[in-house]
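User: Structure with cobalamin, tokens only please.
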Amino acid sequence: MSKPTECIEAWLEQRGFNLFSIMDPSSWIASLRKSFFDLDIFLPVDARVVLFGSAGTTLWDLLTEDKFSRPDPIDTYAEETIRQAVKLYWGEPAIQWLYPGSKIVPLQRLCREAGWSHASPLGLDIHSQYGTWFACRGALVIDLPLASSPVTRSDRPCDTCYERACQVQCPASAVNSDDDFNLNACINYRTLPQSRCADKCLARLSCPAGETWQYGEHQVRYHSGLSLEAIRQFNIGHGEQNMGDSP
Ligand code: B12
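Assistant:
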């Protein structure tokens, strides 16, 4: 027997997951459903895709030293918390983990479909309140016909941003017009010995959207370090998703 959605939302929020959405794949745009089909991910009729995200620093602040000393501390914490939430609120339904996981599930398109975010010139998605300072921490298919979360459409901050600080501040000239992020330029510059953005993305930091939700220096360095490691290790662009803790 499942409990009301507000209860699980409040429970998750206390644990650092302030973004949450239950989605019915039958209402998705066809191209998104097709991506799942192409990835060989079976979505049973009446199953739901559930997304768990964190914005700002709350989740990071909850990772005490003992939790941080485990491998992939953020993914590990996310998985154990999400498992607990499922059990507590929905019992023991069949679940299929999408993320963290071994397949590159199109998380950003899922987040957009959930109404969380929009594409931005940074390659990162942008949320009307949190700016680019959020990430998806978990996604699963749950075999229960749960009520879907309402999808609230929001404004895209970039549409009313005329300064384009992201474009001006990117030392790699990787930020151009919308949907035209130059990943190769970003990676080439980031990996130079004299790079100014090896351990932080100057363009992201300069974006005025969601400024109060910006990660602290330590968290920025941690995630940037992981993405830099992934770039080096996996010859990125050709995509290994399971890079340990998600960026
Ligand atoms: C591979 C990967 C990277 C690669 C390159 C991205 C790429 N497109 O190849 C690298 C290692 C460079 C990277 C870096 C970062 N990443 Co990354 N990355 C991913 C990952 C695992 C797969 C992306 C992918 O290839 N999708 C496959 C296609 C099929 O999915 P898609 O949605 O259709 O594709 C979209 C993306 O590719 C995106 N895109 C296009 N160009 C770029 C460039 C960059 C840098 C990014 C991040 C995305 C992006 O646009 C596509 C159309 O929507 C996702 C997790 C996921 N499963 O989605 C996280 C993800 C996209 N990354 C994320 C983050 C936060 C980062 C970093 C900021 C981490 C950090 N602090 O350094 C940096 C970006 C800063 C920078 N300039 O380097 C978040 C984005 C959240 C958001 N607000 O949108 C995601 C969703 C992970 C998560 N758990 O939430 N990432």
